[in-house]
Amino acid sequence: MISLNAITKELVLACRQLGLTVSESLAALVARTIYNEATSSFYAEARGLQEADARAVVEESVKKLFNNNKTNPGMETLTLQAGYETALVDGELRVTNIAREESDFETRRMNFIINQGYSMSVHLNFEQASLVWNKILELVVRRCRVPSIRGFKEHNPEFLEKEMSQILESVLPRVGLQRFLALPGSEKRQQLEELLRICHGIRTLNIKLSGGVPLLLDSCWSGRELDKVLEEIQTEVADCSERCRTFELAAGRGFKIKEELLHHRQRLAYWQSLADEFHGLKSRLGEHRSNAEALVADLTSKIQAQQGTLPKEEVYPLFDSLGKLVSTATLDQHLASAKLELRDYLLKGPYVPALPKDIYDALKTKKNGTEKKDTLERVAKEISEFIVEVHGPIAATGDAAALSDHPSYLHPETTANFLQLPLDFQGFCVATLPSYLTPGDPSLGVLQYKGRFCVFKDLEGMKEFVKKPQDAFLNVREMCYQMPQLVQLLRLHEDFPQSSLHAVLQHYGEQRKDDGSTQTPLHFVESHIDPNYEWNEWKLRKDALRMADIRRKTTVSTQTKGSTFRRENETQTWLPRDQGINTAVEKATQSQKWKRFVGGLRGEGATAMKITNFKFEV
Predict the structure, then answer these.
(1) Are residues 385 and 410 in the same domain?
(2) Residues 146-160: pLDDT tens digits?
(3) What's the domain range around 27?
(4) Is residue 567 domain-resident?
């Protein structure tokens, strides 16, 4: 049996070899949504895949990915879903990791300080006091330092350390370290946490009063900035809604237009989700900002009213609340920065399908027409009677299975917690799904069947569902096989546990990082290589230049007067001396000598190794 993760890795490698770069999440989603005609289901729904099935999945996935030339709306929708959901998970993981790193760092430093208090003597010396003081100062500086946030520039860290050293000295003087370290471990940890919040609150007040370095809540993601972002998102929501209405009218003109409608529905769902997120962030950040301004105003009034020193019992709780508030707001700032990246991802999407001009012109008159809507009273009366007519009255036994198999109508005014009902299929009308995808109208009521809460566009859709509710669910499943992007759009993760994007993202965070290293030696020292060889290229060049210079030089001789008495020496030969002769010099004829020099490095091109041979004549 071959796992889906192994198939995904094989698919990514195959696409890379063919020159196509595909993200792992998109490759996994495409591989999990390949349709198997033999079983009338996805290949991923099988318990395990044989080698032949796995090869078929890889081949079909490669064809599907390579045929994506901006004319396949279904593939573009899958790409949008994989990219957006992956970016969403990345942003959430980044915010979670920031909070976890800060918490782990503070825990390690606090444990070190607590353990140092146990191991030190009763009277601290200068080195011990400096060590504990520096660790506490490191904690305070780390708490007040803001990690990278989009739109916010942190000031000089050296100035921050100097400022926090003065603040820490005012809250916990060095002379008080002995008494602090003598406390029990639990109380010591509690006071350290309070100390961090108080110092953070004091610095926040100093920044607010001095007007030097801008405060975090004032410098980025102010109310005006959030309003601007929300205005852009609302504009995109309106544009996507208009496109969806236009494509809905033309959904019966071809399968491609139906898939383009799904693409716009998915993009609209993402924009609406971002709008809700930013509305919540604006509300929370506005609340943080107003609370911080109230605390700063309270502290400022106390400082101005008091001529001398303020009592700690009066101001320290306010500083504690202010520091805690700013720390909470910082995480919301990181979350807002992550959500802004999702907005940028949707804006840079190049694929925005549009209707042909002839179809668009033909739909103008139909688009401007008014549609008659059913009233709640008429729907409630007729659908209740129709349910009794088709399925009979509800059994009085109270059997849970019988109640689940019997459709029931939930009236908006008489149903408890009607607005909190978890609508299935993301609130879309399942009765019109074979033709086109349109949102249902919850104000007409909800039909409950087999634990699912379904809404519909009109009364006729409700009646069609009541006639054969099980067939309606089967039609939804068949449409998901034809258009796999519906699985994510309708959030059918439980119906397709192995083929949904939710299953892909479950393994996404586990295989994101991998530490690996490769070290290649510059020169391989083999057994047949002389270890005494000179590998210094510059030294070899120097020797080669010296020998070349010697070979270019000539010796000029001059006939002197004394040389006329010399013997003819061209035919002279000095034979080796006998072994019995006691002399210090032995001469004889010798053959030519060769010396080989190797230059350059192993490789290609200009760095290729070159071998030069020199002949030395005796």
Answers:
(1) yes
(2) 655 555 555 566 778
(3) 4-74
(4) no
